Amino acid sequence: MLKQYRMIAIAAAVCLGLTMTAKPVATSARTQEATGKVEISLKNFKFTPADITLTAGKTVTLIFINEGTGGHNFIAKEFFASAQMDTETRTKLGKKGVVELNKGARMEITLTPKVGSYKVKCGHFLHAGLGMTGSISVR
């Protein structure tokens, strides 16, 4: 059944002229993390970068930018729950650990991550099934 929905969503994306490719990123998440910032693009069924590596105990600012044609989110409940952050930032994420962005929106989250491997996804209908997934590895 999920396979049928995936095929329908792909057909709809093709009919609507949406692209499933992302422009190249000039620097890697690891390089960006050395500056204390990691920029994450949310764009039509893809996170760029999809896989992020962070250093445990090192404060980092994650900059989420929705470059897609509609709304997207970044769900990483376990990652956000385990990280240290101030009360204001924790309130932005809510209890579910979700960064929710409308088209063109941007959000910055500053936190200190804990060691672990975490999965991320977009929770909008069929987006994860179309490839909008990733991981965060904290070493």
Task: Provide a descriptive summary of the structure in words.
The protein is an alpha/beta fold and 139 residues long. The protein is built from four helices and nine strands. The strands form three sheets. Strands 2-1-4-7 form a four-stranded mixed sheet. β1 and β2 (46-48) form a beta hairpin.
Outline:
It is built from four helices and nine strands.
Strand neighbour order, sheet with most strands: 2-1-4-7
* Order of SSEs: HHEEEEEHHEEEE
Question: What's the N-to-C terminus distance?
Answer: 38 Å
Instruction: Please estimate the helix content.
Output: 10-25%
Task: Report strand %.
Answer: 25-35%
The major β-sheet equals: 4 strands, mixed
Mean pLDDT: 84
User: What gross morphology would you assign?
Assistant: globular
Count of helix runs:
4
Radius of gyration: 15 Å
Number of strands: 9
